[in-house]
Every structure is written in C-alpha cells, then in structure tokens.
Amino acid sequence: MSLPADHPAPPQTLSVGLLLVVLVVAFEAMAVGTVLPRVAAEFHGLAWYGWASSAFLLASLFGAVASGLLADRRGLALGAGASLSVFAAGLLVAGLAPDMPTFVVGRFVQGLGAGGLGALPFAVITARYPEAARARMLAAVSSAWLVPALTGPLLASLIAETWSWRAVFWGLAPVLALVTPLCVGPLRTVNGPAPAAPEADQASDASGLWPALGLTVSAGAVVEGLRRADVPGLLLVVAGAVGMAFSARPLFPAGMLRLARGLPAALMLRGFAAFAVLGANTLLPLALHDLRGLTLTQAGSLLSVGGATWTLGSWIQAQLDRRGGPAGRPRRIRMGAALLTLGLGVTSAAVLGTLPLAWAYAGWCLTCLCMGVAYNANSLLALGSVPDSGAGRLSGQLANIEVLMVAVAAGVGGALVARLASLEAAFTLAFAVTLLGSLVPWVAATRLRPGA
C-alpha cells in the first residue's frame, strides 16, 4: 500500500504527540510489571496474580477493536481521545483500590483504553506516513520504550519502597492530561471527520464489536477456569474454548489456524511470539523475586535490559530495511524466530536456577533483540497488505492477536502459581509452556510473503 505522491506530509507535532503518548503508556507498562509482586503481597492476592495481567490484556482486546472501528468511521482523533480518557480512569481506579478484586477491575478499565492506544501507532503510520517513512517511524515508536525501559523499573521500585505503589498508577493521570492535546490536536487537523460509510457497511463494521466482546468474555472464562480446581472450572475452560473458536472467526482473516500464506501467517507469528516472550515477561519479576530472592529493583532491571535490547533490535531492522529494502524482511523474521527460542530457553533455565543468574540477562538480551528485529519486520509486512480504508481494522487485528495470546499465557502462568503448592514447579511448567509456544513462529515464518 502506498499513499498518493501529493499526499501532504504529517505535521511534526503529530509525530511528537504520538511518541509522547507511547512514552507514557510504556512507562506504566514497565512500572506495573515491577510493582505487581508488591501489590499481590499487600492484598494477599497471589491467587489473583494472573488476573492482574489477563484482565488488562483481555480488555485491551475489546478496546483495540472498538478504537479501530471508531477510527475508521469517525477519524483517528476521536478514537485517540476516547482511549486516553478511559486509560486515565483505569489508572485512578487501580491506584485507589482497597483490595485485589478492585485492583483487577481498575486494570480492566485501564486495558480498555490501552487497547486503543496500542493500535493507534499502526493506524496512524499506515494512514498518514508514506512507505519510505514507515520503518523509521515504527523504529521511533519502539525507541519511545527505551527511556521507560531503563528508568521505569527503578523509579517504580523507589516509589513503592519510599512512598506507595499506588503513586505509580495515579501519578500518571496528570501527565496524560498534558500529553493528550499534543496527540489529539494534530490528528484532528490532519485527519478530519471520516466520510460516512453506507449503512450496510456500517452495520457490518459495528457487528464486529460483538465477536470482540464474545472473544473477551470467552478468553476470560478460560483464564478463570484454569485458576479453579473444580468441576465448574473445567466447564468454564471448555465453554470458553468453544466461545473463543466461534468469536475469533469474524475478527481475523480465514486460514489462521492452518497458517495460510500472507497475512494469516503473519498474524499467527505475531501472536505466538507475543505468547512466548511477553507471556514470560509477566512472570519474570515474580519468579526472580520469590525464587531467586531479588529485590523489586533487581528483578525489574531484567525488564530494563529487555526493553533496551528490543529497541536496539527495532533500529537494526530499520537500518537493514533502509539499506536492503523490504526483500530481506522474511529472512530476518525466520532468523529472529529461531534465536528467540534459544534466548528464552537460556533465560528460563537461569531464572529456575539450572544456570547461573547472570545467564538470565544474556538470554533475555538475545530474546528481546530478536523480537525487535522480527516483530517490526513482520509488522511492516502486515501493514503492506491493506488499503488505507482498512488501516483501523488491521491495527485492531494486530493488537488483538497479540493481547489475546499474552492474556492466555498470563492466565496459564497465573493459574499454575495459584494451584500448585510449589512455586518452583509452577514456574517450571509456565516457562515450558512459553517455550512450546515459541516454536509456532518457526513454522509461520516460512509462510510469509510481501503484502499485495
């Protein structure tokens, strides 16, 4: 897909505003991963640990579809403003929560907004940036995670230890109030109200909200069922799995389960790579804290290492794209998928004590570096497969497959932690599941092709 030659370049303020929003969301993501063990300990809510991540992610799934629909029908400015407002409300609820269930509710509300914000960069880059600038802008979006990755865990742990973990949440709400005009204003200028779609098309688009809601509820049933060791729990898992199968069909292109060539394979690659790496990421701070005795700051430093090397990988991908063009993307994705499994295996072995702890940092560096290269290359292939009018829908698909798979991974890991008496056994099984998931991108990477 390419924009017309006379298409006006997006204003610089749009790029700045978009990057600032990503910066705030990235800081919150890195901070929550660091302080979540403290939250669970204060509320005596280790059994809810998986839900603290899954609720956020499942709500993000629905939020991504809703924001994509809103962007396609009413313009990116309205979608961005709504997502930012809901995200801020979730921060306040989580920060003021009196117990773990209320905290989970706050995470759910926060996720509704974050889903739209996660999809926003893809929609903006696809609809408003020429092909030559997309790789550079995607790398800039990834680099916006660098400062939060390096400072977020440290600042969050210091705030939690000297003041309260609650400030990590509600302290960002005023910042969002300042950042929002910088992002929404330029979008309103550049992207005016979208032309009205025919009534039949509007009805078809709106009907996508119901499958998204069904997928969110069904995946939530699976997560809750895994957490329970009784017959109702088993029934929830079965019903949720069936519901997911039916709800996913209208939301994603046909052929995903058989890894059909092109976009279906690209989406599955993204989903299972996220399942493996980001699923493990939700468990690393707790495993390092409870199994290896690290402080919150020390455990969070591993997340900092991952964020920095992921950013480095994204910039390497952009440079390779600039020098060699899009033709080398499939090859880079295949290599990244293979090395990703190797790095994840080394990290897991070190966290569990089979290897020295220092190997966890080496393995996580390799894992996240490969994710930075392969993830961005895969995203660019997907972005090239849709016309301008479908940018919002594709952004929802990219965000949905990612958050769905990470939510399932976090749910499985949280269920194992809740149900097994031995934390070492729980984390061993959880990391084994993520390693198995990392094998799927190996196959999907052989079935990619440049988008039409």
Automatic annotation (TrEMBL):
It is found in: Membrane. It is a multi-pass membrane protein. It comes from the Bacteria. InterPro entries: MFS, MFS_dom, MFS_trans_sf. Its main location: membrane. Keywords: Membrane, Transmembrane, Transmembrane helix. The keyword Transmembrane helix applies. PANTHER family: MAJOR FACILITATOR SUPERFAMILY, MULTIDRUG-EFFLUX TRANSPORTER RV1634-RELATED. This is MFS transporter. It comes from Deinococcus hohokamensis.
